[in-house]
Specification:
Blueprint lengths: L21 H12 L5 E4 L6 H12 L4 E6 L10 H18 L4 H7 L8 H15 L4 E6 L8 H18 L8 E6 L7 E2 L8 E2 L17 H9 L1
Parallel strand pairs: 1-4, 2-3, 3-4
Antiparallel strand pairs: 5-6
Helix pairs in contact: 1-2, 3-5
Amino acid sequence: MFREFNTTGLCIPEKNYMVDISGRIKEITSEYVDKGKYFTINRARQYGKTTTLYLLERHLEKEYLVIRLSFEAADELFVSPYALAVGLQRSIGSQLRMQKITKDILKKWEAPISKEFAMSDFGERITELCRDCDRKIVLMIDEVDKNSGNQVFLGFLGLLRSKYLAQTGGIDATFQSVILASVYDIKNLKLKIRPNEETKYNSPWNIAEDFNMDLSFRPKDIAGMLME
């Protein structure tokens, strides 16, 4: 099969010459995902973040049901909690259909969302989905820092946080792991919702584990690609 170098966007192993990071993908899986941790992956643009997520998704699909989203060009989702809940319901539902989830589970997931209690209702859908599926679910979201200063986004993080804590206490069902990817670490972004409001940190995501794994390319990794 013909392959070539690619320096922009997503790299595909079958189409592009690539550094072999399979060892790190397995390490992320065993040290973070298998242990049920929520974490963020932060890398500057053109440093392989999207490719890393893609390879991680392919690896996780062997055992987990993986839902992968992106908040790039999704500003319309963050105008209200209802818009976000319905938008996520639609996007996740599309992926569930592609993964051949049963009709009964899809029917529950796609039932109308309450306008008055949108995020609470959406949280119940997550509970039902994770309880009814025969595989644990991993949620991956890229470009999360696009709307990190938005109050609706913070409400979404708060929902994930509360469900994580409730599942830890044995009183809820939610995602096995949530992986948020961005250029900047959303845990460290200062936020000010209103002009006169005190600047504060984005605290709803304080449940996230510190992701300290070195994702830079090592000489032996590059040597393997050059040999190919």
